[in-house]
Amino acid sequence: MPDRERPTTDATDRTDAFLVAYAPGGLPSYEAADHAVVERSRRTLEDRVAARGGRLIALEAPMVDRADAERAAADLAAQGVDLVVLQSAAFTMGDVVVPFVEAGLRLCLWAPDEPRRRGPIPLNGFVAMHLHAGVLRTALADRAGPFGWCFGDAGNPLFEERLARVLDAVRIARRLARARVALVGGVAPTFLNVAADPGAVARRTGARVVDEDLGPVIESAIAWRDGVPAGGDPERMARAIADVTAAARGRVELPDADLRANVAVYLALADLARTGGYDALAVRDWPEFQARMGLHPGLAFSWLDEARGVPVAAEGDVGGALSMLAARAAAWPAPEGAPTPEGARPPGATLLDVNDVDLDHDALLTWHCGGGPLDLADADGVRWTEHTTLSRGGDPRMGAVADLRFRLGPVTVLRVGRDGAAWLALDADVVDTPHPGFDGSRGWLGRFRGPDGPLTVGDVVQTLLHEGVEHHLVVVTGHHAASLRGAAVWMGARLVRPRRYRPEPLPLEDAP
Question: Do you find a cis peptide bond into 300, omega within 30 degrees of 0?
């Protein structure tokens, strides 16, 4: 494996586990103590939270009344917990839920299985959970936000599946809330639909967007291309070129000078990410790079993700960068910066256009010019080549970009849009068609699924166009759409609902 550069700032080195609190309640007249409900539940929850990359804290004793809940809520809020699992270990009074709402804490309600189904009722936990849900939706409707719920003990699908989705959603929301994204050079010319309002992004997701000038990045890249900047490591360029070449198994189909120039852009962007503590970049990749350096920085974007785990969204697309961070969080339960098994790394999330519609094979072609991470590549891997569009017609030729095809299998399609206010998340598969797709990073997607079941390609196109979904979509390995939709709900965003294909234009009043 290549010798990866390791980031040195707290933005990517921190062990960023989300924090879950276990808050059981119950009246002592029931049998929770006889059946060790709290002890068993704590152990189960601790295991499930750790498996999703979180850390659990627990109350020392079950809550009996509102006074107990007030003390617990104040303490948990002071500790900055991301989620409170409020369990009715036995019947719990209805006002116990109120202090947690007043403290602004996210809630997941939980009732255990009854240990028997005859005679005097042992726990009566579901009734209490039902009561709490009703209080949240009626008496506290003006203050309570979204909440989760799960039912049963370990192994019960209503516990396992629902808790997993809640934990995933909270982890994704936390990742965005703690993110720093650099907008480098602003939005590419005319790409009005990806322009972002940093204030709105912060209000809706918690992420901080920082403007950075493109000029110093290009100056730094030119310095690396032409030699070694003051204070730079003379061996750094050689190591990076060797790693980039090895990743393509030697398939570098462009002049050495073009490879060096693009690696120089990678080094400049890596320095920016490190010194600024940025988790992702949204970079204006044209026309300045072409005018001043005669290249497209696709390889640099790919390698910043591959070597340092910092995703890059082309064309200054801040929402695309947020989508990449959210998709990676959904696909990788380990906290940022935590130790990983040898050779393991978070999957890359790829920023793509939708370029073609194949009705015969019910598939969409997703593509970009070659600036995405490499881990979606099929067995043929990647080759570094010139940008086929910018180099069309001969000189000047503009390398280097990644040319690869996606391997077959499950993926998730995501767009965090409208400055975080509207999320589209669909499951799909990379499918085989007779068409290889256009040169660049690409794959045909089919077998789409939304929250209500299968979708045709016509349905997906109808949704993208009628809803005005921003034109960059993000693809990541695995099916994670349910968790991402859950994160959107936690963050108060609107879910973009898939629309069924209709041949006639939809009325304007039907638009979002």
Answer: no
The CB density around residue 117, as the number of other CB atoms within 10 Å, is 8
Instruction: Please list the residue range(s) of the chain that carry CATH number 3.40.50.10940.
Output: 17-176
Residue type (1 letter), 28:
P
Q: Which pTM does this prediction carry?
A: 0.93
In the structure, what pLDDT confidence band is assigned to residue 4 with cuts at 50, 70 and 90?
Answer: very low
| CATH classification code of 17-176 | 3.40.50.10940
Please state the rounded mean pLDDT for residues 250-278.
Answer: 96
The confidence score (pLDDT) of residue 396 equals 65
Provide the CATH number for the domain formed by 180-336+346-510 in this structure.
Answer: 3.40.275.10
Q: Is the pLDDT confidence value at 303 over 60?
A: yes
Cα separation, 290 vs 292, whole angstroms: 6
Closest CA to 443 of 493, 406, 489: 406
The CA distance from 84 to 482, in Å, is 20
Peptide bond preceding 396 in cis form (omega within 30 of 0): yes
Identity (one letter) of the amino acid at 360? Answer: D
CA angle 498, 504, 505 (to 5 degrees): 70
d(CA 438, CA 388): 9
Residue-wise pLDDT for 145-187, tens only, equals: 999 999 999 999 999 999 999 999 999 999 999 999 999 999 9
Task: Tell me where in the chain the CATH 3.40.275.10 domain(s) lie.
Answer: 180-336+346-510
Position 391 confidence tier, pLDDT thresholds 50, 70, 90: low
User: Which residues does residue 353 pair with via DSSP β-bridges, in sequence order?
Assistant: 367
Give the gyration radius of the chain's Cα atoms: 25
Mean pLDDT within 5-23: 62
Q: Residues 176, 177, 183, 187: is their CA dihedral positive or negative? A: positive
Q: Which residue has the tokens 């965090």?
A: 416
Kindly report the backbone phi and psi dihedral angles of residue 85, in degrees, each rounded to the nearest multiple of 5, phi listed first: -90, 105
C-alpha distances in Å from residue 285, one per residue of 183, 289, 495: 11, 6, 30
- Helices marked H in 227-351 — which ranges? 236-247, 256-276, 288-293, 298-308, 318-331
